[in-house]
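Hey, can you fold this one?
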Amino acid sequence: MIGCLLVFSTLWAFYAGPQPRERPEVTEAIRLAIDARYEEALEIFQRTRADDPQDPLLNYFVGITHLKMGRLIAASAFLAEAVAQDAPFPQAYFWLARVLGEREQPENAREILDRGLERFPRNRDLQLLVEELRKPPR
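Sure. Predicted structure:
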């Protein structure tokens, strides 16, 4: 539960940052996701995303919710969309690379990490994941 809380709430702080968006439904979806009510959260995220498909944070939330549900292919598709939209937060790059690594696509994962580190060169999570991917498989 703590991991889920960090995955969603950290970015919600960014999302509601200096220019808060009036989207109480997204707040509700995050609460549902934190409570591991992923199906309900996903429905709200997808409905909200339909109104704004170019919002990288909504694509991230849909992707992370799929990830939490164990749907790696769907997760990678939405996380890739967030990265393609130049997501202004390093978590999109981190989680996409992590999913690609899980899907046994280490070269693609490294490419995403390189892009993420170009944008966020001091991000420790991205740096650690690079090191993890360099280790030989067990």
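Helices lie at 2-15, 24-34, 38-51, 56-68, 72-84, 90-102, 106-119, 124-134. Let me know if you want another pass with a different chain boundary.
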